[in-house]
From TrEMBL:
It comes from the Bacteria. It is an enzyme of class 1 (oxidoreductase). Residues 9-217 form the FAD/NAD(P)-binding domain. GO terms for molecular function: oxidoreductase activity. The keyword Flavoprotein applies. Coiled coil: none annotated. Its EC number is 1.14.13.-. It holds the Pfam family Pyr_redox_2. The keyword Flavoprotein applies. This is NAD(P)/FAD-dependent oxidoreductase. Keywords: FAD, Flavoprotein, Monooxygenase, NADP, Oxidoreductase. It comes from Rhodococcus parequi. Belongs to the FAD-binding monooxygenase family. Its cofactor is FAD.
Length: 535
């Protein structure tokens, strides 16, 4: 036993997005030595990489921001209801500067391995920067839940002679579509945001759609100074509401049950939420997300809006989502999305009736013929929740790899710890509510809980902490119980890993909401961090 070995750093943090920056800041304030490794050339994580046209958060800017420092939240001026990618990136750059975080960040360096050594009780971190390895007592994976971009394996992809882009790996100096024939594959949140903006610039835009989404209008608008000032003056109460809420955002409460409301009144209520814009539509009634028949009333309303908006009836029918409940795949929030299909330079290819046969040097060949393209944009999403961790060679006790441990689906305790991987913490991991929430609220909770646990361990002189298999199994059973029978099981979503061929079909997020999750974590901490063993 080599207990006296001194690590290079007390903690290594991986990733400089919302989670990693806050983890770095919180840990430094405790006087522990920290090094953060970031693959990108700058801070921002998601908001560093996703620079596609139209990229924007679909949570209100006043809510999608840090709450941990009052001066920060008072001084930052959000300009629109929903922040654009450049604005969020500027905000995170400001945070990094304001708290002097950059000096502890190594940019342009991707962590490729993390191996636990039983003898020393330390983690050895390897990077793509070459031979240098560092050791740390604690490792915090702030690698993101939606950070490993996925290109589908389509025959002939490499033969395409035009430009290939992925929305989540967008060139930092932007792309000019003027005069170009552009194809977009994918109509999830990213495609829905990018399509209307690309359509305005490109010569021609062809959208290749596999599954139509439910697209709710964003109703974005500038924030006037008075409105933002009012929010700021009430921030403590607003933040408290966020933390106690289900989703971490402030939405108007549901107006009763869809099924018990008269059809004409029901439509009026949907109209009101449609006019409000954003995520509030999904919670118009309290049974939309729990009862299939109630859900169908909201789906019908969206389909009626599509048919009303899109002038070509065949295109409208292709755009109508059918066969899965609204919200079972994340609803998309769009601006002029359906209207865009009325433009002369936009065409929709419905891949369910006209599938892609292959990609050829000139473009995409579907069964009906060739679509010639200069640029092909993939808005095809991510290997969600487990992709970024799976890309790192993580080995715990006895050299066991995380990849092997999670072969049949991820197992965690609270989404933050994994049995067999001592002193490793995950922020926004599978088993946490993060991807079903305003992720900034989840991130602050996760980081504060993990850092609080580190304080506790240091106070008690513990060198190693590890989730027990029993606690992890119980958490897994709890996740399964609350997800069983939920409408989320009824769509092939990334929540279930269904978007990645061969990935085990397991519902990965915690469905109980951020408020319940926070209370549960607080109780576990109060019980002396039940579910962990320490040495
Ligand atoms: P999503 O939501 O995973 O959307 C990906 C889209 O790409 C979706 O429409 C997919 O259709 C489509 N897709 C994926 N593979 C293919 C292939 N092989 N052929 C055709 N179409 C394909 O990713 P986003 O980036 O839009 O959003 C991710 C999250 O980021 C979002 O939920 C927000 O939380 C922020 P499918 O539905 O699989 O049939």
């Amino acid at each position: 036993n080599n207990d006296s070995a001194e690590p290079t750093y007390d903690v290594v943090v991986v990733g400089a997005g919302f989670a990693g920056l806050y983890a770095l800041h919180s840990l430094r304030r405790r006087g522990v030595s920290v090094r953060l490794f970031e693959a990108g050339a700058g801070v921002g994580g998601t908001w560093f990489w996703n620079r596609y046209p139209g990229a924007r958060c679909d949570v209100d800017s006043a809510d999608y921001s840090y709450s941990f420092d009052d001066a920060l939240q008072q001084e930052w001026e959000w300009t629109e209801r929903y922040p654009t990618q450049p604005e969020i990136l500027r905000y995170l750059e400001h945070v990094a500067d304001r708290f002097g975080l950059r000096e502890d960040i190594t940019f342009g360096t991707r962590v490729t391995s993390a191996h636990f050594d039983e003898q020393s009780g330390l983690w050895t971190i390897g990077t793509d920067a070459g031979s240098e390895t560092v050791t740390a007592r604690w490792t915090v994976m702030a690698t993101g839940a939606l950070s490993t971009a996925r290109l589908p394996a389509i025959d002939g992809l490499d033969s395409f002679t035009g430009e290939i882009l992925h929305t989540a790996q967008w060139p930092t100096d932007g792309v000019d579509f003027t005069g170009k024939r552009v194809g977009v594959v994918g109509t999830g949140s990213s495609g829905v945001q990018a399509i209307p903006v690309i359509a305005q610039q490109a010569d021609r835009l062809t959208v290749f759609q596999r599954t139509p989404g439910f697209v709710i209008p964003a109703r974005n608008r500038p924030l006037d100074a008075g409105e933002l000032a009012a929010i700021k003056s009430d921030y403590p109460a607003r933040r408290q509401l966020q933390r106690e809420s289900h989703g971490g955002w402030i939405l108007p409460p549901p107006v009763g049950s869809a099924l018990q409301t008269e059809p004409e009144v029901r439509v009026k209520e949907y109209e009101a939420r449609w006019a409000m814009g954003g995520l509030a539509f999904q919670t118009t009634f309290d049974d939309v997300m729990t009862d299939l028949a109630a859900n169908e009333t909201s789906a019908d309303f969206v389909r009626s809006k599509i048919r009303e908006t899109v002038t070509d009836p065949d295109t409208a029918e292709s755009l109508c989502p059918k066969g899965y409940p609204l919200g079972a795949k994340r609803v998309c929030i769009g601006t002029d999305y359906y209207e865009t299909y009325n433009r002369d330079n936009v065409a929709l290819v419905d891949l369910r009736s006209d599938p892609i046969a292959e990609i050829v040097p000139e473009g995409v060949r579907t069964e009906s013929g060739l679509h010639e393209l200069d640029t092909l944009v993939f808005a095809t999403g991510f290997d969600a929740l487990t992709g970024a961790l799976g890309a790192i060679d993580i080995r715990g006790r006895d050299g066991t790899t995380l990849r092997e441990t999670w072969r049949d689906g991820p197992r965690t305790y609270l989404g933050v710890a994994v049995a067999g991987f001592p002193n490793l913490f995950v922020i926004t991991g599978p088993g946490s509510p993060s991807v079903l929430s305003n992720v900034v609220v989840s991130i602050e909770q996760h980081v504060e809980w993990v850092v609080g646990y580190l304080d506790h361990l240091r106070e008690h002189g513990a060198r190693l902490a590890e989730a027990t298999t029993q606690a992890q199994d119980e958490w897994g059973d709890h996740l399964t119980t609350i997800a069983a029978g939920s409408i989320y099981q009824q769509a092939d979503s990334w929540y279930l890993g269904a978007n990645v061929p061969g990935k085990p079909r397991v519902f990965m997020p915690y469905l109980g909401g951020v408020g319940n999750y926070r209370n549960l974590c607080a109780r576990i901490a109060a019980d002396g961090y039940r579910g962990f063993t320490t040495t």
